Amino acid sequence: MIDSIWTNAEKKIARRVFDAAAERELSLLISEFKSKAASATDTETLWNIRDWLNKRQSEIDSEFDYRYSRLIFVFANLIRARKININDLAGISEQKLAEILSLTEQ
Amino acid sequence: MIDSIWTNAEKKIARRVFDAAAERELSLLISEFKSKAASATDTETLWNIRDWLNKRQSEIDSEFDYRYSRLIFVFANLIRARKININDLAGISEQKLAEILSLTEQ
Hints:
mainly alpha; homodimer; elongated
């Protein structure tokens, strides 16, 4: 059973790590978008960029889902995707860290 | 009753005028898109650009509808929007030109 009770201290750590990862992700999205847009020369490419934005928005919404009931999974996914490191989460309970690590190995 | 029978000679003129207007429109769309994209600095702007692309695509699809049954209306709208000139259509029947002009005045 996943531990979804987060203490205030843990929430602070979680929020910081989550926000920093989300910020990096969105920053990367903006640069990728600008680079795709700068090289567009036809409308086909415009519609492809629009479709790509839709896809990325839905991926990011699902990847960055800050609900305490989902956070263990969210952090495990972010670690698997090498977007955060388990050490970033130092300070949260050993049980949660173990759950997250165990999910990253699945 | 709108005349929607186009002779081959009229079709050639219509196609040329239509294609040239569509090309100008899409060219303008690409420049506007690139300029919006270049000045984007946050994701909110990205989603706004995506929504704007959706809107423009549907407007352009409706504005550039090359069906002979629609062409009189399409040319009237393009004239009203100052995207073509009635003189561009020289060579099509007097009846069609009169129908188009009459629609531009409504």
